[in-house]
Amino acid sequence: MKKLFLLLLCVAFTMVGCEGTGLEGGDITPEEPIFVTDVDGNYVVSADGGVVEVSVATNLEYTVAIPEDAKSWVSHTDTRGIRQETIVFTIAKNSVAQSRTATVNMLNTGGEVLESVVFVQNAGNEDNPNDNPNDDPNDNPNISPSEILLSADKTAVEVGEVVTFTVTDGTGKNVTASSTIYDVDYNVIKNAKYKTEKEGTLKFFATRNGYTSNTLIITVGSGVDNPEQTEGTAFLHKVLVIDHTGVNCGYCPSAVDNLRDLESKTGWGPYYNEVSCHAGSYASGDPARSTVATYLNYFQGNLINGYPSIAINLYSRASSYSYTSISNALSGVVKKDGADVGIALSVEKGNSKVTCSAQIKAAVSNEYKVNAWLLENNIYSPNQSNATKEYHRYYNHALRNTSETVSSGDFCGRSVGMIYMGETYNYNCEISVDSSWEMNNLEVLIVVTARNGSNQWEVVNSAVCGVGETTPFAYVQ
User: Fold this and answer.
1) Element at 169 (helix H, strand E)
2) For 3-121, CATH number?
């Protein structure tokens, strides 16, 4: 049985990584709850349903929140004990030929999510009228199983509108009912409908029978600002957070969880761009591995004291891969009053390449270097060690290639000379794309460097843009 521990530590909490040191005791404050789950992953329930007991050891006050659309088949029937508790859930019988998933949250008194329990119930035997049980593309050797396509009734909407998704297989048949649709953060889109809440660019994809669809982009509101905008020089500072990781690293999924929490539960999300570097001794057989990632792994070798390791920009590191360590490292690097340069860019796809057009505008007169890093999202790896959640098996922001020549001793890019305050430099490049990479899942990260006090070419700002998209200058709010 999977056990959930809600534990508010009053003493140091340590974790040993695959190599070297793990979390340092000083990283955990007395106010920070630590959640530890075993390696069983989600609760998988048969179609006949039944009773599931979840053991909880806690000194926190919490409530159990079952999603509205799951209350018809998941019910919270009992809590036994006082502080060593067993939460009893009843799962109703599933009579339709479609599996279903429910995420039940444990909430503190302020309504914040402390931990989640996921129930996945197998499909029943009754035919689903919305899906043909014989339309599995694996049944036809002439149809590629990977040819599932995610589409929507509209891809440009205003805030508050509802988008309806459809998934089709290689024959054009509607297989929405037997597919799972996710947003870019791997939140499941229920009933294939999504209500937009704010302006911006949203990304979605679908999975079915172990295969992944295209990434679908939905533009909400007026879309991105004009990339030619050049008003002001108080540019938002976005540093690099580089996760050195690998498919064989059993502690690396914990780093992924910490990075997700860092983005969603703190105010640091707007101040960094994430890169995952799959290389080194724990990346044997890793589908996200690349030659350029190996170069970056060597280049930052002195920052890696075990896997996972978190580098900040090119020459700094977090003391461990804990949520608090990464946050502390960012607080010592990010310039909230503005970066030295601003970056606007657009990316277009071509035959076996992507083309990037960027503008670098200086807020500080200096000599700069520029490089463009090609990253790939949604790389599926079924063999990730110690993966306890579905998103642990999908790699995002994986380094694939660069526009400028790099080596184990040089990663700073090409010199563009002196750019004086208020001036703009136009940087254009092409990056080769391997045929095994999914073009629609690629993004380009522009990295601008300048000399620091140690005469190193260190990152002064970065900006990322998906293929077929545009990223405007970002300013301090």
Assistant:
1) none
2) 2.60.40.10
Q: What does the block give as tokens for 39?
A: 């390696």
Strand segments, DSSP code E, in 184-271 are 193-195, 200-208, 211-212, 216-220, 239-245
> Which CATH entry fits the domain spanning 239-471: 2.60.40.10, 2.60.40.150, 3.30.700.20, 3.20.20.10?
2.60.40.10
CATH of 137-220, one of 3.30.70.1660, 3.30.457.10, 2.60.40.1080, 1.10.540.10: 2.60.40.1080
Distant-in-sequence, close-in-space partners of 195: CB < 8 Å, separation ≥ 6: 160, 161, 162, 163
The radius of gyration of the chain from alpha carbons, rounded to an integer in Å, stands at 23
| CA 34 – CA 82 distance, rounded (Å) | 20
The pTM of the full predicted model, rounded to 2 decimals, is 0.57
Q: Strands, DSSP E only, in 279-365?
A: 309-312, 316-317, 341-350, 353-362
- Asked if the domains 137-220 and 239-471 are classified in one and the same CATH topology, the answer is yes
User: Which of 43-52, 181-190, 225-234 comes out lowest in average pLDDT?
Assistant: 225-234
What is the distance between the alpha carbons of residues 391 and 395, in angstroms, rounded to a whole number? 8
Separation CA 316–CA 333 (nearest Å): 9
410-435 per-position pLDDT tens digit = 999 999 999 998 899 999 999 999 99
Rounded distance, CA 464 to CA 442, Å? 10
One-letter amino acid of 143: I
Q: Can you tell me which residue has the tokens 């396509």? A: 149
Tokens representing 24 are 């340092």
Q: Which of 420, 419, 421, 403 has its CA nearest to residue 411?
A: 403
**Residue 421 near residue 447, CB atoms below 8 Å:** no
Give yes or no for a contact between 102 and 72, defined as CB atoms under 8 angstroms apart.
no
The answer to whether the CB of 131 falls within 8 A of the CB of 174 is yes
